[in-house]
Amino acid sequence: MLKQFDVTKSKMFRIMDDDGRILSDKYMPVIDDKQLVKAYHDMLFARTADHMTVSYQRQGRIFTYPPNFGQEAIHGATAQVMRYDDWLVPAFREMGAWLAKGATLKDIFLYFMGYEEGNSWPQANHLLPISVPIASQLQHAAGIGYAIKFKKLDEVVFAFVGDGGTSEGDFHEALNFAAVWKVPVVFVVQNNQFAISVPFRMQTASKGIAIKSQAYGMPGIQVDGNDFLAMLLTMQEASEFSRTGNGPVLIEAVTYRKGAHTTSDDPSKYRSKEEEEIWEKKDPINRLRNYLTDKGLLNSDEEARLEEQYRSEVDRIFVEAENHPAYPLEDVFKYMYADMPDDLRKQMANHEEFLRWKESIQ
Amino acid sequence: MLKQFDVTKSKMFRIMDDDGRILSDKYMPVIDDKQLVKAYHDMLFARTADHMTVSYQRQGRIFTYPPNFGQEAIHGATAQVMRYDDWLVPAFREMGAWLAKGATLKDIFLYFMGYEEGNSWPQANHLLPISVPIASQLQHAAGIGYAIKFKKLDEVVFAFVGDGGTSEGDFHEALNFAAVWKVPVVFVVQNNQFAISVPFRMQTASKGIAIKSQAYGMPGIQVDGNDFLAMLLTMQEASEFSRTGNGPVLIEAVTYRKGAHTTSDDPSKYRSKEEEEIWEKKDPINRLRNYLTDKGLLNSDEEARLEEQYRSEVDRIFVEAENHPAYPLEDVFKYMYADMPDDLRKQMANHEEFLRWKESIQ
Amino acid sequence: MKIMNMVNAINNALDIKLSEDPDMVIYGEDVGVEGGVFRVTEGLQQKYGAERVFDSPLAESAIVGTAIGMAAAGLRPVVEMQFCGFVYPAFNQIISHLARMRNRTRGRIGMPVVVRIPYGGGINALEHHSESMEALYAQIPGIKVVIPSTPADAKGLLISAIESEDPILFMEPKRIYRAIKQEVSEEKFSIPIGKAKVVTPGTDVTVVAYGAMVREVQKALPKLKEAGISVELIDLRTIYPIDKVTLTESIRKTGRIIFVAEEPTSFGVGSEIIAIANEEAFLYLQSPPKRVTAFDTIVPLPKGEHHYMISPEKIFYEIQRTVNF
Amino acid sequence: MKIMNMVNAINNALDIKLSEDPDMVIYGEDVGVEGGVFRVTEGLQQKYGAERVFDSPLAESAIVGTAIGMAAAGLRPVVEMQFCGFVYPAFNQIISHLARMRNRTRGRIGMPVVVRIPYGGGINALEHHSESMEALYAQIPGIKVVIPSTPADAKGLLISAIESEDPILFMEPKRIYRAIKQEVSEEKFSIPIGKAKVVTPGTDVTVVAYGAMVREVQKALPKLKEAGISVELIDLRTIYPIDKVTLTESIRKTGRIIFVAEEPTSFGVGSEIIAIANEEAFLYLQSPPKRVTAFDTIVPLPKGEHHYMISPEKIFYEIQRTVNF
Ligand SMILES: Cc1ncc(C[n+]2csc(CCOP(=O)(O)OP(=O)(O)O)c2C)c(N)n1
Ligand SMILES: Cc1ncc(C[n+]2csc(CCOP(=O)(O)OP(=O)(O)O)c2C)c(N)n1
Ligand SMILES: [Mg+2]
Ligand SMILES: [Mg+2]
Questions:
Q1: Does residue B240 belong to any structural domain of this protein?
Q2: Same domain, A349 and A235
Q3: Quick one: B130 and B264 in the same domain?
Q4: pLDDT of res. B344
């Protein structure tokens, strides 16, 4: 598909319709049924965790959190193609992909509870931390790509950014460097139609994002990001393309941020219920469920049981995270440099002296 | 031409061949003979001034200077379309365009002699100063475009940048903003094949620069920047397009930096004589001269006389600039803020005290 | 008079200036339809239209960069950087052009641009949302840096900033956006840039603060009074140019100076305050000028932020130690 | 031993480390084929190939940004910013990632990256080519800032910088790139980061300088000696973390401190030096610590630069006044 796709003309690549029925099986990803069901279950788990995180936030048990609701197929497809040695360079809204790369849900909770530890992901291989400054992480991806090529390794980088992020200069520079260096980076833009309150049409006057690949001389493709099968095929082809030394690829995954921007945001201020309803019909999990059900691969009883199981698993992990030890003073200083400079040591000692005084007067 | 040009397919737009013969008169700019000859003379004047500036620099009479040699047709064409109220947003290699916008040669000399005054251009209307941080000035152009649209004025902005400059994030952001806002900015990239020593092919993997317009949903065109007629038609159409409310345009003017990057640079370190000779044959002034001679519009005696006249005029102006009064201490402080803060006043007074002491001990 | 918090007061200042000056425009990420992530510009697009108050694409460099062009062409842009941690993509435009255009053109092109920057910690935010890096900006020749500490000051200073012919970074202590409410006149008034304010006169020690830290110092005042220490609290209001006259007078009177801020200790505004104390009042100093400032570390995520933030207890503790030096 | 200027010495340090460490790469604008606009990397591409020493597209943010990625993936990039005035597009990558990656990942991903920055005035350059904004960087928690003042120091400090696990901004005083020549060993040696050097011991006054200003102070020394003033000249070498031990010892001994630098006066390294003098040696100070620094203005273009640059005469004048305080 990637080869056939003409960013100046082709329509968004889809395999299934909004109801999960195959539109055309000309291009179908290779994946066995078991794996397909597993992918679906992983997406379900991610959604469950996501929903529960939002409610933990409402309960005041966690700080600001950016929901992933509605974008799970993108992460689920990424999960299927990422190998152990491949790299994942996140923005901040790809929970399913982090989990697939080896991040633990507990770490993710710790992070949004306010511990840096939760962003260090010791169990994960080749996973960069969450990156908040929009689009800046794409340059890291290009650099990792260079290192891979330099060391002649069999690895690919998957780098994420949002539609809003494509407006930043760092997006441009990262794609340009990756293309000039011809390094293995798959750039995935989650075009979820909004950058906080700003709709996509105010972000750029171009016909979508995939076409921006022309500016860098790399292939691009616009794909229905809520269509798991199309997304999977695209990721398979893109990663294969990059892995075999052809340089970077730009994927525009068209989706919708069904939730709020973060838990501090109220989308009703800037978008209509009607619009939300239109997108409700394109929900990626529903579509995949329909497809799998039609294929006789799902059993609704089991699914109810699974969801129940997921909920209690998530909750158990969350409570575990909540019982994480307090943040020691030393941790503020300890990781600033490889060796702590005297100055920092002294600032810490002075603060400890103050704390002793404070204790003494109480 | 702009409408017909397909950035993904069309070949570079040319009207004349390397010898100044018309390849096809399907697209010809409207310009009367007298004006055409004047344009040629202006280019000749700019080249004379440029060459002489380089030799002043060699004589140690001026500091670092970036030669314009070889790129005169771009500036000459711009000169023809810019109106009094239009804006010119320079990079640092468009001398002919600055002069056309009302900058005096004396000011230009003052600037490269090391006076800020030479960058203030009091005689020019709507001319921004020379901008050294690559590509940053394009954002100013987009902002001016917004102001023009906001105030419903009949003005266009001409903004310049080099091929190297297209790699900067600011280039991307500026074009994106201008396109989203649909403001009247003609972005002119002088693709002179080099960014100092770095050849264009190492700057981007895309098929040229015009195609980058696709990323912003604006029209783009690749034009032979050494072909005055093609350049003029392109500038006419682009400015007309922008002036009538259609938003920005991206022009890639393909040219060659025949001289060094600046007077501190030595191109023999990074490019071949053969390459230089190939481009020598495409010299914009020679081509226009051939064309005009064929049309019987030039007279070689007169040209010799003119060149002589230009040389003495340039030299007179240069000597005038050399006799510019010394840079007063106050000028270091005076323009920092609308009103000088006490602190600066005091720093100046302290320095004056030191100077008095220094004088006293001598 | 009306009860306003700082968000209301800033909104009110913007409203007044928008209605007065047809060339003023406001833009930035989410400032239009949504009215800003902190709701500071709420209602202004409805009132003045989407040509004067609008959302921009997500690119800080271009937000400042285009404001420079607009100012050159006669508009008066007031732009918002969404958080202090996201100004950096615009750093080049700020330092290379916004701060330099007037000087570069020998006064021909001034830069009447206001860049609003919510800054500072204490709101349990994500990474990059809590920094206090005002010293980075204060040291850039060609711009001015203003920080209000109350709703009324925010209004008066912002009106001055918008009317200034020079570029102003207007840093808003988001921690007290809604925490302090006071009566603020709905009429137009302005407070001069470059003048500090003596919040509480005193005789034993000069305490210099600004932004959210003024309130933290105030919280420590009763206990200090109890301890018999008379504090002269100065709200700097403008970080550059610093009001050395007010500072010097106070230090010469009290002989002691303590600087309280959220910023990291080294190479900060506090260093400059100490330098000023030395240059202007060396012979009056009875104890070493003291910085009560944050560690030279990155602001910890919320679970560690209490270690980092300056508390009234710490202010009390350090002031007492300085006075007993 | 071989006679080297600073360009030779830096080139030699890069050469030694390239030959030692196969994971080290060098890139930036014009550093490959051309060997850099100052010829600092000359010959290295020929020797080590275009995969290890190469030209990048023109984009500072991506130069630093990709270096961050390379470091995360096990390379050791040494990148060049062409001039001090062109670092700013990379400011976001420096402050938001380079300085923070280690802390953000609780030590899991370190950033062994060196960013070389030719800086400072006195070379009759175009706008933006003469700035000394080291304080901007020194105040960023998470990076270190190193500035050599001689060829040998440049070599030894750069070798330490490349071997450091922390990100280093290595600022090179371009004015003395070729002006100072000295014997430098061709062998590998390193000079520790974070340690200042007592260049000339003395008793009356401590003078702190770095970079090109060390030489300017040295030019003033004979006259000062004539005037009976014994100067202890300290070359800071590292701007962050500052060697407070050496500084404090010296100030306690001399009782007087003068800071000499090309940077603007306010909010600079000098402010921090004064703060340190106060915090560490208040009771020893016999006169106000003094900054002999540039105006709080933009560096003038060449015709005005003599007003701005610090001269040996001015250094003499200010030292004499301080000692006679
Ligand atoms: C450089 C920078 N500017 C502003 C912000 C504040 N901010 C956080 S998310 C966001 C919108 C991002 O939109 P998009 O890239 O579409 O990603 P999405 O949130 O939709 O996943 C903004 C403006 C930031 N984090 N970084
Ligand atoms: C932001 C920035 N980085 C680096 C430089 C140094 N520099 C000056 S000109 C130049 C090359 C510019 O190449 P190009 O854009 O093609 O313009 P040309 O010089 O060819 O006209 C460089 C790297 C600069 N001026 N600004
Ligand atoms: Mg989005
Ligand atoms: Mg060029």
A1: yes
A2: no
A3: yes
A4: 98
